Amino acid sequence: MKALAINGSPRNGGNTEILLTKVLAPLEAAGWETELVQVGGRAIRGCMACKKCFETKDMECIIKNDILNETVKKMSKADAIILGSPTYFADVTAEMKALIDRSGYVSIANGGLFKGKVGSSVSAVRRAGALRAFDTMNHFLHLTQMVMPGSTYWNLGIGREIGEVDNDEEGLRNMNHLGKMINWLGTSLKDNMDKFPK
Ligand SMILES: Cc1cc2nc3c(=O)[nH]c(=O)nc-3n(C[C@H](O)[C@H](O)[C@H](O)COP(=O)(O)O)c2cc1C
After folding, report:
1. Is the pLDDT of residue 132 over 90?
2. Nearest alpha-carbon partner for 140 in 48, 20, 8, 18
3. From atom 4 of ligand 1, which residue's Cα is the shortest distance away?
4. Tens of pLDDT along 179-192?
5. Structural domains present in the chain
6. Pocket residues: Cβ below 6 A from ligand 1
7. Per-residue confidence (pLDDT) for residue 198, from 0 to 100
8. What confidence tens digit (pLDDT) does each residue in 94-124 have?
């Protein structure tokens, strides 16, 4: 099984990446193939509302010169998708929002590319606003018919400078448990995909 983590932070090795890595660790231990894709800090523009994806229905966005389409391809192949974003002005980064809007439309235009997958989101935050960022990503997971596992707290980790999130013991414990929940849910769903509502 495959888990894809998508990092919406422009800071390589930053707090969001640390959180995502903590979620992936139990999945790797359980034998999952994992991949972390960097979206933050890379070229990815917003949706143009051209609705061409509803005409072409080729599982791609008409904007071909950025990383969206290769990321959608990876998302389509994954059994679990974990979105990560630092909290920026009490919400997700611009790159994460562009990914949500465009991959969401491509998914809907093609009958639901992500339906039945496990979907989770995590946010790194200095002080406040992480729940909004978490909600923004969860709205996408919900509307694209992914299945969200709970954990022991909402999926946020506290830290400002790179690495500070390592001091948030409760946050890290929650990430570890989340990884285990994704494994449990993902392996359960896998055996039941033939029963997914038409
Ligand atoms: C543009 C910008 C906006 C931010 N807005 C918030 C905010 O609303 N609330 C907050 O607590 N921290 C805010 N932060 C701090 C980051 O969320 C925090 O440093 C986080 O750990 C960064 O994660 P990263 O290392 O993965 O980039 C902001 C940082 C930046 C650069």
Report:
1. yes
2. 8
3. 88
4. 999 999 999 999 99
5. 2-195 (3.40.50.360)
6. 9, 11, 14-16, 86-90, 124-129, 159-160, 162
7. 86
8. 999 999 999 999 999 999 999 999 999 999 9
